[in-house]
Amino acid sequence: MTDNLSRPTHCRVSWLVGLIVFFGLAAFAAAPAAAQEQSSLGRLYDQWQIDLSGAVVIMGTTIRVDGSEGEGTDVNSDDLGLPGERLMPRASVRWRPGHRHELELGYQFARRSSERTLEREVVFADSTYDVGLDTKSKFRTDQAFLTYRYAIQAKERTQLGAGIGVGILPFKFEIDALASANSDSVTRSASKSLIGPTASIGVYGRFLLGERWYLETDLRYIGIKIDRIKPSVVEGNLAGRYFLSDKLAAELGYGISAIRITVDPKEDGTGFSGKIKYPLQNLRLGVVLTL
Question: Which of 26, 75, 178, 242 is the 20 to 30 A CA-CA neighbour of 1?
Fold first, then answer.
């Protein structure tokens, strides 16, 4: 079965194109001024940066939870009626202990719930949910991340370097069988959770464009196996800032994480096993405090 939510919609592509055009025009407009200015409200080497954002999180998911008797069903977001977009908070803190070194710690919330009458049979672990059954689902795919960056080129207005990111996905999926539609009476319930590790490596760039404009971009990838968990991760980020003062900036950004996690079963058959595949995008607007 094709996972329709795993393909970018026309609307999502339009948002990304709009962001690229916006930042490109801002850079073009600011470039002549940048050559003449000797100082800037924006800086590339603040010791501390605190970023608080509201993000439209765009999620498409395929999940399979295996049981002791065999593989489960590949289930996508449409099967469960899960919304493809949610407004969620995002926060990060950056610390620069040296001119070329930086650490960033952050958390992106990504949570959904829905009620749905199943249009096909779903096998979740060792439970079977039949066609026509009313269900209630909850799905948490938050992301916690820690990134180290090293500036290979560390000029006043340009910073280029390499980055290594690690993170965890505190994943949790619940599905309840309801006695009837819109009922609070649960006849059967199943839940699985996993703290999945992720990692990625790549490059980044940051640029001052004029006195108040700042542009940054990241691109990282890795595919590894840790014990019985094999994550494959592609991460990208594009953000622009406009400095309102010496300490405060407004930020508009776009990020994407294309994640696939395969979990082999334990020898005793306990715990989570199966696969999770989802692209998670965020279109965010927030404020950045610099210290």
Answer: 178
